[in-house]
Amino acid sequence: MISQENRKATRLTRRYRIKSGVPTLILLEGASGSVVTRGGVERALADPDGVNFPWRPSHPKATLEDGPLLPCSARDSNEPMLHEELRHCIKGVYFSAHWCPPCRAFTPQLVDTYQRIRERGQNFEVIFVSSDRSEESYNAHTESMPWLRIPYSQEERRKKLATALDVQAIPTLVILDPRDNIITLEGRAELLEDPEGLNFPWTSRLVNILTEKYATSLHDGPAIILFVASESEECEIQFGESVLLPAAEAYRRDRPDFDPNYDDPDGALQFYIALDCETSDILREFVGFDDAVPLLTAIDIPRGVYAVMEDGAEITLDSVQQFVDGFRNDKLPTNKIAAVQKSTKSDKITD
């Protein structure tokens, strides 16, 4: 049995994306609890007298504006761009180097997702920030990149941007909104979980596409999940969002304490669209569903139970809201999750 203390530690590790082990020092804003800096240890070592405490990173906008952005070798246009021209874009700031094997493995994955997102008509641009040790290596690394780059000669600019975005290692992909505010520091992890970019720009949304990352969070609280076919993914996603989002928004209004940036919401109701994929198949088998779609479900793994919308009922805004209300008020008939039943029977046999 996992102790309450270990559960709290796991939640904090997830929430603040702690990967570097100990010692780790993350400074938080007193009232809001938002992150001031993740690199507290490094900042304290560099500034032992605390002159610049709390070591708040500067806004990346000033550094991005400090000169032109050059096209990489594989980009269609050879014209340099000013940061002002990207004012309507979601931006990915990509910190990488040719000498780094994980970077060389991730770059083609980023190229593929970048192209998929842009083909759907979304304004997305990537800016490469090099950690290469020579200009020759830098040039080799940019040959296959179809986006923009900060010139290799502008080393100080590259360093300032890494500090402003609190970059601790490479490869790192930071996603910025059109005003250059941080959406997520974990763009690489988000992309690896969602290579199609279906949840792009990976903001904290009320309704998400169910991926392996989100499937893990199902063990922490209940979820409303709409299983759909994916013959036309965009249509299925649009339909799913249209019927789930109003219910999710209503639930959010009832829960003013809900923190959308908290990956482990401690029992808060989650809302997902489950496409036809391996993650959905595993969950279906775990719970004990057949292959019927569309299928609206409420799954509560911590309690070991699930509910489904009655067979033949049309999935509409009203029927989804009624289903969610019924589940929240314990008025829906529930069944035991198949995997839980098996575990219970096994325990009885063992006893």
TrEMBL record:
<dbReference type="InterPro" id="IPR013766">
    <property type="entry name" value="Thioredoxin_domain"/>
</dbReference>
<dbReference type="GO" id="GO:0004791">
    <property type="term" value="F:thioredoxin-disulfide reductase (NADPH) activity"/>
</dbReference>
<protein>
    <recommendedName>
        <fullName>Thioredoxin domain-containing protein</fullName>
    </recommendedName>
</protein>
<dbReference type="InterPro" id="IPR012336">
    <property type="entry name" value="Thioredoxin-like_fold"/>
</dbReference>
<feature type="domain" description="Thioredoxin">
    <location>
        <begin position="16"/>
        <end position="212"/>
    </location>
</feature>
<dbReference type="Pfam" id="PF13905">
    <property type="entry name" value="Thioredoxin_8"/>
</dbReference>
<dbReference type="GO" id="GO:0030178">
    <property type="term" value="P:negative regulation of Wnt signaling pathway"/>
</dbReference>
<dbReference type="InterPro" id="IPR036249">
    <property type="entry name" value="Thioredoxin-like_sf"/>
</dbReference>
<dbReference type="GO" id="GO:0005634">
    <property type="term" value="C:nucleus"/>
</dbReference>
<dbReference type="GO" id="GO:0031397">
    <property type="term" value="P:negative regulation of protein ubiquitination"/>
</dbReference>
